[in-house]
Amino acid sequence: MAAKVAYWTGSYYLFPSIRHDSQNQTALAQEFTIDSDYDIEYVKLSMRKNNGSTITIALYTESGGEPDASQGSKAIDASGWSTSCALRTITFDAPISLTAGTYFIVATENSNLGTQWCCSTAAAGPGGAMKLVNGSWVAVGTPDRTFGFEVWASDAAPSKPTNPDPADDATDEDFSDLTLDWDDGGDADTFDVYVGDAADNLTLIVSGTILTTRTLTSTQRDDLFTDHCYWRIDATNDQGTTTGDVWDFTVAGPGKATTPVPNDDQEEIYIAGIDRLTELSWSAPAGETPTYKVYFTLPGESPVLMDTTTSLYYTLSSDLLDALDYFSIYEWRVDTYDPVSELTTTGDTWTFISDKSHSFTTYSRRSDYDPDKVWEPGTGWVDINSFEYTGGGRYKGRLVAIGHNCVYFGSL
Is the pTM value of this prediction over 0.85? Predict the structure, then answer.
């Protein structure tokens, strides 16, 4: 069954003509464009009877805006035509296969007796009418005229699908919705979808879908590829199947953990006393629930994996707390892992500086106190001046307050 794939009709005029007199016109041509591959069965051209009897109608490729090479032709006897303009049907002996592009219908007078016989439309047409004069193609009319024409083709195999989404060669694509989209390149009835981890290792996941979108299942996602997806869409109609191009994209890993506690580069993080550091925490990447891998780095050592968790915090182990020292710089990191794609995103490295706790010890004073002594339970009277912290670091224990019946010592 044939379909009209290109055409223009309008009010016809008895201009121009093929003439073998002073104008030496030997052929006329009309440009047309098809957007898909077709097998052209016949054309219709606005024509009238001339003095001759035989005309050859051919389809030519286009080059530089002119007819270039014949793709097939048909010689016809026009002696029975009327002198009125009408669309004359010229059926080729065998369909002429054309790919998408621009072409010309070319009419050539064979008997050298031509007068007026091709009919153009009003100037409102798209143009593209040409005449061959002394061996050179020139436009017909100013502005260009258009010969009334129609191009009829049998249903052809569909064109390749286009406009892939994710785009071809895309990198770090967010593929969390597992959805592939494409456009019909032309004349497809159904599509076959192939997915894999290499161009030569594709698996058919659906056949004969009428949709131009496909969402993969989690199982298909896990089984068919990891971080690099290759895919292809084949288009089918009753004339056959057209194999599509292979497209590919890389998949982005999960987002990074954010908002560390302690804050990045925070100082005076206490590792002793009642207010000491006991856990590390962070926030999830927006809209995601990945698994977290927590790393901690002691000075001069490599990062150590401390825990794999789905929680948003890590409680410091007693062994790790014992390994911490005052006034040191510590690094930690939280990597995010997507168990579906099996992709890991390395997190930012955060740091903090440890410090000695602002802790205080309370010593009672008795009513019969010695101004230079303080009563320490279990010890007795102790000289105030003996209360001095002599450990490492930049702080010293000292008397910080005397009030009521207590004196307070500690580090500030």
Answer: no
